[in-house]
Amino acid sequence: MKHLFFLAALAMMLLAGATVGAADGLSPEEESYLRGISQDYFKITSSIFISFTSQTGVTQGGFVFDGEAGDDFKMDVVKVPLRYYFSPPESRIRPFLKLSYGHARTSIFYQSSDFYPEDRDVKDRDRSRTHSISLTPGVKWEYMPGFFIEPTVGFAYSHIEYKFDYNTRFMQELLAHYPSLDRDLFNTTVDLYSISPGLRHEIEYPLGPGILGFDLQYAYLYSKPWRSKSRFTDYTVHGGFLGASLDYELPTGLTLWDKDVAVKPFLARTDLFGDFKEGMEMHHFYEFGLGFILDVGDFGNLFSRISLGGSYITGEGMRGWKFGFNFI
To answer: Of 40, 144, 275, 303, which is the most buried if we count CB atoms within 10 A?
Structure first.
């Protein structure tokens, strides 16, 4: 996970402010520089949070990112998607509407500076909370038996809240000289809207006693803030991902509540593009998992099967896990 270390520049401003005795007296050059690195920080972090919470094609779970200073950046993501079809399962063309809620929270402790001797054993805490609601219309078309194409266009609203605990003397004195930084940088909020067109291709091929599945999907994400407490959120996000998964669904011959149970091991890879890749500081990550499928029969036009399982996620400097259920 990319973390922008701009506290060295803030330290110089702190010393300058202390010298002249000014409070919140940023020069135009200092404010211009601060605006630039702040926009980069908000752009990179929001691209990560929005991609994980609003894109149902990106995995969820608990993640740990290896830190440059020995501290690990932790992120937990939960998503609840619900899809409604406007035509029965036997139809070859099935328009649908997908509603999803996503939540992410992050936390990291790190040493802001060793400028003061008493700060060498003290760490500040940086946190965030993200809530996303997305609405995605689309069409699932079975153009050949077992072959599906699914174009979609997603619309999302995301609210990101940044929180900072000033535990070190360095940060406390920095805020004493420049109190506006608390609202503009450290304890602030950003509201964004997103548009995300995507295309998915799915194959279900009978092989032996089971069904071999292959799924390939791409989505592009455009996002822009429309409201914020900070003055430094004039930016746009351009990102995307390409996800590919291979699975094999095998009947177990077992039943649960008189419903058939199948097992489905899977392997997935997700490639990242644009701001999403820059923020994550990785090109791709992998997911290995196992799911159990329960055939519950047609439940209106919402779902007919329930999947319960878990997976392990690994990437460049990232590791994570996922456990939960999904409606199919």
So the answer is: 275
| Two structure tokens written together for 252 | 């177990």
Q: Which long-range contacts (CB under 8 A, 24 or more apart) does 87-90 make?
A: 87/301, 88/301, 89/298, 89/304
Tokens (6 digits) for 203: 């194959």
**Structure confidence by residue, pLDDT tens digits, 16-69:** 554 444 445 667 777 787 788 888 888 888 888 898 888 877 778 888 887 654
Alpha helices by DSSP H, listed for 178-325, are 180-181, 274-280
- Given this model, what pLDDT does residue 24 score? 58
Nearest by Cα to 46 from 57, 35, 34, 38? 38
Asked if 132 contacts 168 with a C-beta cutoff of 8 angstroms, the reply is: no
Phi, psi of 83 (to 5 degrees): -115, 135
Out of 17-21, 94-98, 239-243, pick the least confident: 17-21
Q: How far apart are CA 286 and CA 71, in angstroms?
A: 23
Quote the pTM value. 0.88
pLDDT above 60 for 165: yes
7-327 under CATH 3.40.50.1000, yes or no:
no
Alpha-helical runs (H) found in the chain: 7-20, 28-54, 169-177, 180-181, 274-280
Other Cβ atoms less than 10 A from the Cβ of 14: the count is: 21
Closest CA to 276 of 25, 57, 85, 30: 57
The DSSP code for 237 is: E
At 226-239, the pLDDT tens digits run 999 998 888 899 99
CB of 156 closer than 8 Å to CB of 130: no
The sign one gets for the Cα dihedral 175, 179, 180, 182 is positive
Give the tokens for residue 235: 């930016």
Instruction: Kindly report the backbone phi and psi dihedral angles of residue 90, in degrees, each rounded to the nearest multiple of 5, phi listed first.
Output: -75, -10
Tokens linked to 170: 């360095």
